Amino acid sequence: MCDKTDKKIAEAFQILKTETSELIHVCPDVPVISVGETLRTDWPFRFYRDFVAKNYPVIIRGGCKHFPAVSKWNSRYFLDTIPNKEVTVAVTPNGYADGLAAKTTEKGKVHYFVMPEEVKMPMREFVKKMDDVSKQYICYIQKQNSNLTEDFSELMCDVQSEIPWASKAFDKTPDAVNFWMGDARAVTSLHKDPYENIYCVIDGFKDFILIPPTDLPYVPYKTYPVGTYKDVMNKKCYIEDHKGEKIEWIAIDPLKRNHYDKYPQFKNATQYKVRIKSGDCLYLPSLWFHHVKQSHKCIAINYWYDMDFDIKYCYYNMLKRLSGT
Q: What are phi and psi of 23, to 5 degrees?
């Protein structure tokens, strides 16, 4: 009975894969529009109809080019304007904040989900550490608590507190507006968020790998103990174990080819690879898996709008349960 059930589930996954490939994920590229499209009065309606309702990403070239930040913000500008500002910096030995790392224990090598060490320092020190790539640690401003509005309020005059057409389409204002800046070696591991995301690159570029939530059955999850990096900058780096705490996290790194041998089902996942440049925006729909790399000293902000917990969310949770995650 169990074998028959498993077979039916596998067949259902294959039907879902075939139909989404034929009906939704037909084009190998993420759609691209110009900022001029967003100036039309009917854009919020068309944005919702063509992308939000379909849970489908879109790149908007020049979407945030009108922000004063695009022509002003860089490391030099911050050294001139806020050199003594205390900033919270995520520090890791490998660039993976909120990612997987191995720890040698009495039971042998154990993989942990590891959070970064958070260190407070002046902005000038943060920039200096990014300039010295010989350091055996990697720094990234990535605190996701609406840190742009909460911690960098003096910079808000150079951007917008919301994306007007997005707020109109979603019928809400952002839950959070985040500021990101860091080393080219900083990597955001593959994950998903329960937010509609308008991601704006201010300086440099970001490289995204996107995977639709309908391909969840091919994205391997495992349960990991949780830890935090400690003493990263003192060359005594270790992982502090959060005793008894565990988390389900994605087991694969799409940049590591040997992982494809370990998790062959991942080859069935549809991957979109996009580069978002300075002045461009990406609409990243809720629950889409995404992996991110960046240029050195890249600066970005993003607007998180709470997703609607509608029938799509219910279907996703059903798929999650059937996938065994």
A: -105, -30
Structure tokens at 59: 């790149």
Structure tokens at 51: 């992308």
Tokens standing for residue 219: 């994205």
What is the 8-class DSSP label of residue 93? S
- DSSP string computed for 6-51: HHHHHHHHHHHHHHHHHHTS-SSS--EEEHHHHTSTTHHHHHIIII
Give per-residue pLDDT as tens, 83-94: 999 999 999 999
11/186 Cα distance (integer angstroms): 39
Instruction: Give the helix, strand, coil percentages of the chain, each rounded to 5.
Output: 35, 35, 30
3-state secondary structure of 107: coil
Amino acid 161 reads: S
Whole-angstrom Cα distance, residue 195 to residue 209?
17
What's the CA gap between 38 and 322, in Å, rounded? 39
Between CA 216 and CA 324, with CA 229 as vertex, the angle to 5 degrees is: 20
What amino acid is encoded at 220 in this protein? Answer: P
Instruction: Report the Cα 24 to chain-centroid distance in Å.
Output: 22
Is the entire prediction scored with pTM above 0.90? yes
Residues paired with residue 32 on neighbouring β-strands, in sequence order: 59
The whole-angstrom separation of Cα 310 and Cα 280 is 29
Helix (H, G, I), strand (E, B) or coil at 298: strand
What distance in Å separates the CA atoms of residue 249 and residue 13, rounded to the nearest whole number? 21
Over residues 228-254, mean pLDDT? 94
pLDDT averaged over the chain? 95
Rounded to an integer, what distance in angstroms lies between the CA atom of residue 190 and that of residue 182? 18
User: What residue type is assigned to position 38 of the chain?
Assistant: T
